[in-house]
Amino acid sequence: MTDPMAHNNRGGRQHIPRPPRTRIGAAPPWADLPAERRRLSLADVRARCADLPLPPPLLPGGGRPSAVLVPLFERDGEARLVLTKRPESMPNHPGQIAFPGGKFDPALDTTPLDAALREAQEEIGLDPASVEVVGALHPLGTVLGQFSIEPFVGVVDGVPELTPHEWEVASVFDVAISELLSDDVFREEMWTWDESGYERSMQFFELVGETVWGATARILTGFLAHLTGTSGPGDWQEPPIGNVWRGEPASEGALSETEEGAEE
Questions:
Q1: Does residue 76 sit within a domain?
Q2: CA-CA-CA-CA torsion sign (108, 114, 118, 119)
Q3: Are the C-beta atoms of residues 38 and 177 closer than 8 Å to each other?
Q4: CA nearest neighbour of 19 among 178, 151, 200, 168
Q5: Where in the sequence is the domain holding 114, given as residue range(s)?
Q6: Closest by alpha carbon to 102, among 220, 261, 213?
Q7: 63, 22, 47, 43: which is closest to 199 by C-alpha?
Q8: Where residue 33 sits, what CATH number does that domain have?
């Protein structure tokens, strides 16, 4: 297989436990879009989130409820998305890229949205009062069924002043939607874990110096597919059921995908 990091100095040093049987997947879903349709303003994001379908309820038997916030703001007329990087010192998923978010705490949160906003304030100092929630994305489950994640899209007027939590977040950064939609940023891989031949679609976003993958990439793929009116690969529209993805082998050693946004 061609080294996915050997292009344009993109990609980070995140640990990605690829199985032995891996192949390159399809081109980006938005590959046929002209450049001008990949540059979106915050008003564009608001308008396109207005017709997000109502997410289905989480099914019984899923993992522990959690939520993440997909924060966006505008600079120079272009919508930008906020991401965080976990410290290398963290025992779980060190150095991984994530949306701000975490577990639903019934002692503190009335709804999953409360959890997403609370965690965003704790992790990056984003004032909940400054966030306009414009949509909820399809929930998804983690590989081992430990968490069921509900993502919410929030927009902020102006450029927010963000401060990473001293031990939960190594850095907070933003990236333009147009960059995420660049052909040399998105990559799909097809992973096979056992002799059944079952392939899993895995999505990656190769930023300069960082690789976004796992739950964050799955959420991001679905969100960008909606913004561009295209059809995203993978299972981002499948509800979490049971303790693993539908049809996927249950070998815990093999299923070690990072679920960085919700697992702390």
A1: yes
A2: positive
A3: yes
A4: 200
A5: 21-53+60-228
A6: 261
A7: 22
A8: 3.90.79.10
Amino acid 262: pLDDT:
40
Query: Could you tell me if 143 and 256 are in contact, meaning their C-beta atoms sit under 8 angstroms apart?
Result: yes
- Between residues 234 and 49, which one has the greater pLDDT? 49
Read off the pLDDT of residues 35-93 as tens digits, 9 standing for 90 and up.
999 999 999 999 999 988 777 766 655 678 899 999 999 999 999 999 999 886 665 66
**Within a domain: 171:** yes
pLDDT digits (tens, 9 = 90+) for 81-96: 999 998 866 656 667 9
Angstrom distances, CA of residue 55 to CA of 219, 224, 245: 13, 16, 18
Instruction: Record the pTM.
Output: 0.83
User: What are the Cα distances from residue 198, in Å, to 129, 177, 251?
Assistant: 45, 32, 13
